[in-house]
Amino acid sequence: MPQDLARIRAFVQVFDAGGFSAAARTHGRSKALLSKYVTELEDHLGVRLMNRTTRKLGLTEEGEAYYREASQILQQLDDLDASITEQSASPRGLIRISAPRNFGERSLAPAIFAFLAENPLVSIDLRLEDRFVDLVEEGIDVALRITTLSDSSLIARKIAQAGRALVVAPSLLERVGTPKRPEDLRGLPMILDSNMAHIGQWRFVDHGQPLSVSVTAGRVRVNSPVAAVDAAAAGLGFAFVPRMLAEVHVAEGRLVSVLDSFAVEHTSLFAVYPHKKHLAAKVRALIDHLVEWYSDPNRLTLA
Q1: At residue 300, what are phi and psi to the nearest 5 degrees?
Q2: Phi and psi for 247 in degrees, rounded to 5?
Q3: Same structural domain for residues 105 and 83?
Q4: Total domain count for the chain?
Q5: How far apart are alpha carbons 111 and 299 in whole angstroms?
Q6: Could you report how far apart the first and last alpha carbons of the chain are, in Å?
Q7: pLDDT single digits (tens) 27-86
Q8: Integer CA distances (angstroms), 114 to 124, 224, 248, 298, in order
Q9: pLDDT of residue 193
Q10: How, if at all, do strands 220-222 and 164-168 pair?
Q11: Distance between CA 162 and CA 246 in Å, rounded?
């Protein structure tokens, strides 16, 4: 098998280089050896793959078909070799990370700093902002998102479960009353976060069955869950937010969590990255570290 692979690689290298002499110079092998390998491959297959003249080298019809398949197989093998080599190497280089501001500052930063302490050859560019960045367009290696995740153009790995809460200021509850069921939310003032995957549909579970309620914005529409929490604390409406963002406000009485018995939809903390054949060792190491770090649920809270 190794000898067969050497013959196939010689054939591809010769055609890619445009001739035996050029391939010999490029790959540091003798012209005679390359010619021997190609001849042996043709004898093995029982067909001529190349038309050779003193001035020109071309592929036969059979050679063109064989080259297409062989070059793809060799590329896959080379990619696999590179991937295994990279996995065994120490993580190194720059990692560009995107994350929501509040989560990044208060929860993610300690996890990142711990990772850097364990990996001295890695450097970090941490970008904190409350918007969905275009990972490919902005050159981001990995983004941390608290979401239900629906973008199929990205690859995601779940880091941890992150509950969602429906919160409201006590002063607003006094004015509009406490909703007993999700349907009671209709007509009440809402704060909508445009980053939510289902912005106009708030999802609950009623006795094990999914329940969706259509809601419309009140006076406030934002693109940040942190801003939604602050708006709710100001008495401007009900907000559907990651529970960890609201825990401090609830504990201190600025917000009340309602409809908890309806198993408010859960979101998760995901690490997402662009669709690539092989994930860089440095990024894989970071994601593995975050999975272990957030296995302690207390580290997800922002208190």
Answers
A1: -85, -20
A2: -55, -45
A3: no
A4: 3
A5: 9
A6: 60
A7: 888 989 999 999 999 999 999 998 887 677 888 999 899 998 988 888 888 777 766 766
A8: 12, 27, 25, 16
A9: 84
A10: unpaired
A11: 12
Q: The dihedral of CA 222, 294, 270, 164: what is its sign?
A: negative
Q: Of 5, 4, 17, whose CA–CA distance to 50 is shortest?
A: 17
- Round to whole Å and give the CA distance between 47 and 248: 75
User: Measuring CA to CA, which residue among 190, 197, 194 is closest to residue 167?
Assistant: 190
Residue that has been written with the tokens 């990692």 in this structure = 95
d(CA 228, CA 190): 10
With the CA atoms of 145, 148, 151 and 157 taken in that order, what torsion angle do they form, in degrees rounded to the nearest 10? 60
Whole-number CA gyration radius for the chain: 29
pLDDT tens digits, one per residue of 230-281 = 999 999 999 988 887 888 899 899 999 999 888 776 678 889 988 655 678 8
Q: Of 39, 69, 88, which closes a domain?
A: 88
Give percent of the chain with pLDDT exceeding 90.
Answer: 34
Distance CA 22, CA 120 (A): 42
Tell me which range, 77-81, 103-107, 114-118, 238-242, is most confidently predicted by mean pLDDT: 114-118
CATH number at residue 60: 1.10.10.10
User: How confident is the model at residue 303, as a pLDDT?
Assistant: 47
